[in-house]
Amino acid sequence: MKKIVLMLFVTATATLAQGPLSPPGTPAPTMKTLDQIEARTAIPGSPAVPIAGPHFTISQPGSYYLVGNVEVASGNGINITARNVTLDLNGFALISKTVSPAAGNAINIAGNLRSIEIKNGRITGGTVRTPTGPKPWNATFEGQGWLIGINDQELSNASGVLLSHLTVEQCGSNGIDLDGQGALFHISVNNNGNFGIYAPKSNITNATATNNGSSGIVAQFGNVTNASAINNNSNGINTSNGSVTNATASSNGGSGIFAENGIVTNASAANNGDRGIAAIAGSVTNSRASGNFKSGISVGIGVAAHCVASGNSTDPATVDRQIDVSAGGQRDACVPASE
Fold it and tell me: Per-domain residue ranges for the chain?
């Protein structure tokens, strides 16, 4: 018993003999600052009285964010002239106070830039859409506010442009005009005087385009996925050599989905002023069309497979063009099976 007690006393004594518990000197920081984790530059909100733009020019690479709404009386809102830039609107809006005619761009991207990301906010012009009937796409536009919401220079060689979680509305011309290569995610474009989205070299995912003065979504060489287009004055969704997947298009003045030489899969088109779905020399699969003025589904010399069309050819001069296939085209497991 004495041996056991002695061993416990020796162990306890050894444990306590560890030196001073308070080392000399001032304790060093143990956590990184926000700037060390992600250096960011704040873009201030507008003054009480909006001034002529640009409100801010981003001329150095880095991460920038809004801390309030930006309103300008004329000109551009934010100019981007540097590569490798992230602009977080941070839930705020870029608003134009320009009266008619529309002028300036909410965000202007200089040509030939690389790696530009813009996200999380709203761009609002002042353009007024007035329905003129009798069709839902019939309307006039009075251009006020921004001319273009997000714009890169015409014939731009910009690449790696990423736009996400943005609403762009009431611009006098295009909501988004992106000539360079990029990608768009979770985008809503409404009541713009010309195209909702014009991004011929970009892939577009989870987008809605409503009440625009020309086509809702244009991605000529890109792919469009999970998109809807409603009440646009021209085609709802337009791609020449790309694909359209999981899309709906209704009550557009032109074709609901126009994909010349393209691939359309799992799409629906109804009550459009021209064809429901057109993929000339392309293919349409697992899709539906109803109530369209010309043909329901038109593939020319292409392929229509597992499609359903009904109530189309509402034009009195057009006879029974539910699924329109030219000589050399194919129709496979479609309803109606033949015409």
Answer: 37-234, 260-339
